[in-house]
Amino acid sequence: MTPTLDDTHCLLTAASKGLGRAAASALVNAGATVTIASRSAENLAAARETILAETDAASDAIRTQVCDLRSSEEITQLVDDTVVAFGGLDVLVTNHGGPPVQPIAETSVEEFDATYELVLRSTFATLRAALPALADGGGSIVNIVSATAPEPKAGDVFQAALRPGIYGLSKSLANEYGPEDVRVNCVCPRGITTERLTEKIDYLAETEGVSHEEAEAMRAAELPLQRLGRPEELGAAVAFLASDDASFITGETIALDGGWSRGAFP
Length: 266
Ligand SMILES: NC(=O)c1ccc[n+]([C@@H]2O[C@H](COP(=O)([O-])OP(=O)(O)OC[C@H]3O[C@@H](n4cnc5c(N)ncnc54)[C@H](OP(=O)(O)O)[C@@H]3O)[C@@H](O)[C@H]2O)c1
What we know:
This protein has helices spanning 18-29, 41-55, 72-86, 109-135, 157-177, 195-208, 212-221, 231-242, and strands at residues 9-12, 33-38, 62-66, 91-94, 139-144, 182-189, 253-256. By secondary structure, it is α/β, with parallel strands linked by helices. The protein folds into two domains: 9-192 and 230-255, Rossmann fold (3-Layer(aba) Sandwich), CATH 3.40.50.720; 194-228. The protein has a seven-stranded parallel beta sheet, sandwiched between helices. Helix 1 crosses helix 8 (231-242). The protein is globular. The relative contact order is 0.15. The model has no long low-confidence stretch (mean pLDDT 96). The structure holds NADP nicotinamide-adenine-dinucleotide phosphate. NADP nicotinamide-adenine-dinucleotide phosphate binds at residues 14-20, 38-40, 43, 68-70, 95-98, 118, 144, 146, 148, 189-192, 194-197.
């Protein structure tokens, strides 16, 4: 059943493609109005057309705003403009461009700083800017992170070092802002078909000397459900967490990974 998000105003970062766009589409489909942001006005315009076609929503259901998450000034502007345009904010979905996969010996301190800005600093800055508006009347935050982060792999320094900070921040804010009726949760994807996953599958095909289709089947075989995920499956989870259907869920992390996470407990 589609949750109801009428009269609900949402802001989504890094939402011109992939998981961010799918989350925006699910929110709009449930009746919300959204601001979607990314670095590219062109990508945002295309995303807007796609979401309108998917949802049949009125054209004023979607605002777009260019915001490079490496700039805290642009993040503050994004939040302020959205709050003014909507007269408040009910839902924040944080997302960011995915970091490269690389080992410590091939990673300079400068590269680490730049990726920290994209992943953890941008999430902190967005949360910090948006919390006063969310706490004014209550709201819901959903952070898009990664199912891989809690199980750090060799040679994946950014994932291992930076994403756990988002989980920690999320749990701490759930504790701090529960009394203000702000819920804070994470969704943790793996193996969901987006441009980023296609690039990873191309890389796997190249390194393993197999076709794209064979590499895709290898990725699907890692998951108990034996198939890759669809972006709209993550979108449905975001819309659920944003809605009153999830009114007693906070400080939680929900994997959208076809069963890949092996632990019996979250
Ligand atoms: N797909 C999966 O199964 C999966 C699994 C684990 C983790 N994740 C994580 O989930 C996040 C989204 O993944 P995805 O698969 O949807 O990736 P994607 O298809 O590559 O989309 C990335 C989005 O981030 C935006 N973006 C990139 N750099 C930005 C910046 N500096 N400022 C603002 N926006 C920026 C891009 O928009 P513009 O180019 O228009 O700026 C785009 O909308 C990533 O962090 C990824 O690592 C995904």
